[in-house]
Amino acid sequence: MNVVKVGFLGFGNVGSGAYKILKEKRQEIFHREKINIEVAKILVRDIHKKRSVPVQPYLLTDDIEDIVNNPDISIVAEFMGGVEPARKYILSALENKKTVVTANKELIAKHWPELEKAAQKNGVGLYYEASVAGGIPIIKVVNESLQANDIHEIMGIINGTTNYILTKMSEEGRDYAQVLKEAQKLGYAEPDPTADVEGIDAMYKLSILASIAFHAKVPVDFIYREGITSITAEDIEYGKELGYALKLLAIAKREGDAIQARVHPTFIPLNHPLSAVRESYNAIFIKGDAVGNMMLYGRGAGDMPTGSAIVSDIITACQQKGAYRYTTFYNENHPSAYICYLSNWTSEFFIRMTVRDKPGVLAKIAGVFGKYGVSIASVIQKGYGGDTAPLIFVTHPAGELSMKSAIEDIKKEEDVLRVENVIRVER
Ligand code: NAP
Ligand code: HSE
What we know:
The chain is of the alpha/beta class. The protein is 36% helix and 27% strand. It folds into 3 domains: 3-134 and 304-319, 3-Layer(aba) Sandwich (Rossmann fold), CATH 3.40.50; 138-300, 2-Layer Sandwich (Dihydrodipicolinate Reductase, domain 2); 345-425, Alpha-Beta Plaits (2-Layer Sandwich). It is built from 14 helices and 18 strands. 44% of the residues are buried. The structure holds NADP nicotinamide-adenine-dinucleotide phosphate and L-homoserine.
């Protein structure tokens, strides 16, 4: 049986995980799938760097031509990260009639139609399972198992680093900065954790997932994004008392031609299936018109879970040879042509503020909410005897813009010392 030669672009966390799996399971994959896969070349920045996974030095190269112009290599697997030079290398591989497998969410989210068109033009495949939620096979499930459905809602925990941080803050009452340091030590968060904690990583993943679920391109520019850096242990504690867990959620909803897509810290009821997703685990909750509610749960990052998705794509690519499936979006040339991207969606809100503890303050704040049509579901005042008091409101569903205006006015009230946080609530 022919050997399928694969060229790797990158040999960091994901690359070494995929390599380990392909090496250790080569016989088993051959036995089960009748495919004999060999890693033929690996592109890295520094060929002399010590590697955590042993690899024969002759496999390493720092010259992309050794892979994209190697006629023996039929599949290129990319896990370098970033847009350039990954985009250029992938386009060159596709032009040279090599199927591409990638874990690169930023590249797919930003340049998907260009890559897909190049794959189609050259009659080769483009696979990206590992780009969303690591080891969870969410792309395959949406593309190949949910075709009977109109998917109208996705809610996901799709960033492991932030879920780890929020879990530790919630369960151990620790503050954000302390837990972030621990997450960095454990290798969950990058030395520069911005993409994770500011919701950028989750935004790329949501752009990909919502686009395939809704069959319409949901560009990153249309996704509202808020990270977890302003969340305090107090917010989480008060939320818990109200029966909520705090998660960084990626949410996308479609109603007719209107799509809303957003990434932000969100309170969800403690009995919601997503509230039980702890530590660095990911989960995606989907609502389809035929299937109803469903949830996929697993490891969203790490060498072996992400390697699992990469190897699965390589095997699928071998099996589909010549009959590739191309993802197209009817709005890919003009994203706003048929779709309206909402910015004024509706949700419930949790608002925590510090106020002067004196008669009439509550009534004034309630009056401002009333002016903007925001209906209060519950109010909690904590503490007695001091000059100031924490005040927590939970609202009924309200529009984003109404809430924004109400908060601006509330901040002008002289007895409101601080609006500490405004957090959306979903059910
Ligand atoms: P990483 O550990 O930083 O590895 C990156 C690899 O790419 C390194 O081997 C590096 O070479 C090589 N590389 C980078 N730029 C290069 C260049 N210009 N020329 C040649 N080689 C270059 O990254 P990672 O964590 O494996 O992530 C890789 C990709 O997978 C990213 O797109 C990421 O978003 C995605 N992803 C990661 C995870 C995860 O759990 N880490 C999960 C899902 C998806 P050197 O080793 O010589 O420096
Ligand atoms: N940094 C990401 C996370 C892993 O924490 O989930 C790569 O997708």
